[in-house]
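seq as requested:
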Amino acid sequence: MREQLRGGGVAESVIDDAVLVLSELLSNACKHGRPLGDALAGDGDVRAAWQVDAAGRLLVEVTDGGGPTRPAPATPSVTAHGGRGLNIITALADDWGVRDDARGEVTVWVVVHEDVYDPDAGHRRDDFASRIAAPAVSEIPGLDFADAFDDVG
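struct tokens:
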């Protein structure tokens, strides 16, 4: 994927974001979706695709056989072991959505673009971690650094 996109003139930062997006989408498809095709016949799978449009935007898609719920960002607790994938995708993407077809297949698509963030709005690619990270313990009212270790024995 990387070599093909580089050869197509896609910026390295966009490729990095697309690889993370693809990883999240594939993880979600494997965890929450049914396989495509006839799983009993051994051909159950998911489908991944990407393309660069005329404007240079990269579209990444993953299709599975659907699942019990529709893909939607979650609000996990700080200690939760999952539930952050679509929030990460939202932070990296220019746009994303879900497309259903008549066979029950579900495709989650994501548009990744180098100029995703508006500098006037204060969003820059290099501050991604600060936009999704939990606040520092010192910034939580009524809690000081020592309190964070009270249950450590």
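Confidence is low (pLDDT under 50) at residues 116-127.
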